[in-house]
Amino acid sequence: MPRAKTLPALWLISDARNDAVLEGALAALPRGSGLIYRHYHMDGPERLARFRALRRAARARGHVVVLADSAQTAREWGADGIYGAPRALWPRRAGLLHLATAHDLAELGLAARLGADAALLSPVFDTRSHPGGGSLGGVRFRLLARQAGLPVIALGGMNAAKARALRWPRWAAIDGLS
């Protein structure tokens, strides 16, 4: 999958705390956005059933659907790609979008070397997911992202206003989009 041409600019990330509003959030996203389905709080058949329901809602709007799981599971479930730490995405699987998590320049470099299509660099701003954990801030985020060697998606405390202030073309959110 070509990197920049097929990579959505806006990504909704699923989580236990936004599960109840995901269908509405997917419907509100611009056509061709992305969903990263995590739902780590669910197991087995329940997780698969929820994935299928959200995949159906996402595809109705032309969204890309990425699964936080293995490439094998992503193929079995009909996902468009996989999401995780750079090493978890290796070896690269043809036909799947590979989105890596990154928190510093070393992880961005590893993601690029291992062939990820993009990296979600976080946390840009303070976030409910990691209270008190610190954040990169806008200046440091942009410095790291510009050196990354692959497309970077801003994550962490993001919403539409912060995305505009950051002046970065790609961003993702849990609470900020739901």
Written account of the structure:
Helix content is 34%, strand content 18%. It has seven helices and eight strands. The protein has an eight-stranded parallel sheet. The radius of gyration is 15 Å and the shape is globular.
Record keyword descriptors for this entry:
34% helix; 7 helices; TIM Barrel
* Helical/strand content category: alpha/beta
What is the CATH topology descriptor? TIM Barrel
Number of domains: 1
Strand runs, count: 8
Total of DSSP H or I helical runs spanning 4+ residues: 7
Based on the coordinates given, report the CATH architecture: Alpha-Beta Barrel
Mean pLDDT: 94
* N-to-C CA distance: 28 Å
Based on CA atoms alone, the radius of gyration comes out at 15 Å
Give the strand content: 15-25%
Give the CATH level 1 class.
Alpha Beta
Which runs of at least 5 residues are low in confidence (pLDDT < 50)? 1-5
Order of helices and strands: HEHEHEHEEHEHEHE
Can you tell me the CATH superfamily? Answer: Aldolase class I
The biggest sheet, with number of strands, parallel, antiparallel or mixed sense and barrel status, is: 8 strands, parallel
* Strand numbers in spatial order across the main sheet: 7-6-5-4-3-2-1-8
* Large-scale geometry: globular
Helix content: 25-40%
